[in-house]
Amino acid sequence: MSANAAPTETFAEATGLWDRAVNATNYMLDHWWVWLVLGFALWLLLKARSQHQLLGELDERCSASQSDIDTLLNERHALIGNLAETVKGFAGQEHKVLKDVIDARARATSTTGGAKMDAEAAVSSSLANLWSISETYPVLASSSHFAELRAELVRMEDRINAARRFYNLTVEELNGVRRAFPYNLIDSIAKTADHEKYSLGEARAQFDQPVKVSF
């Protein structure tokens, strides 16, 4: 090999890698505010994503608790059918009261949304009328089957009330989050479903009153 041969350039020297790195570093230092803005934008995006996820979780919790209430109401509807048949066997002449209970039950099972809440309240009202007529039929009031159904309905009302209270708490939590900034902005874009608070079970005290039997 000739002693006067030119030294071989390295890859970094051939591509000017060092100079490029220095220039890029200088550019980043000169435009530091750009990276600050990009970092803030990334943080804001991740924050919005987590808050949107929280709204979704609260919405799912509301829907799940609403489903729990619907399940309990369906169980109550089944008990009401048995109760109506029992009362019919002892007080068949009370056609209007029995018809009101059966019709209220039918409306409650066929409606949805806010109308369902009103229909379920009508069921509670018709049941209260059914309890009142039992006082005039001693044989009905002393029936063990009638007493068992009534006790089961009392327990069912307690379970419905507990589920309703939990549902109302989830709705209040969701609505509170939706009203706060910046969740209100996210919700205006995501359009989270509205949930109406439940108001069923106020007639429970009437269910629990003992039937007065007079001979």
Structural summary, described in words:
Helices cover 78% and strands 0% of the residues. The chain is mostly helical and 215 residues long. The protein has nine helices and no strands. It has helices spanning 11-15, 17-30, 32-90, 95-110, 114-134, 138-141, 144-179, 183-190, 204-208. It has a single domain (50-208), classed as Up-down Bundle (de novo design (two linked rop proteins)), CATH 1.20.1440.
In terms of per-residue confidence, which ranges show pLDDT below 50 for 5 or more consecutive residues? 200-215
- Integer-rounded radius of gyration: 35 Å
Estimate the mean pLDDT confidence: 78
Proper CATH architecture: Up-down Bundle
Protein traits:
0% strand; 215 residues; single chain; de novo design (two linked rop proteins)
Secondary-structure map:
Layout: H1 11-15, H2 17-30, H3 32-90, H4 95-110, H5 114-134, H6 138-141, H7 144-179, H8 183-190, H9 204-208
Helix pairs in contact: 2-3, 3-4, 3-7, 3-8, 4-5
Brief write-up:
By secondary structure, this protein is mainly alpha-helical. The chain contains nine helices and no strands.
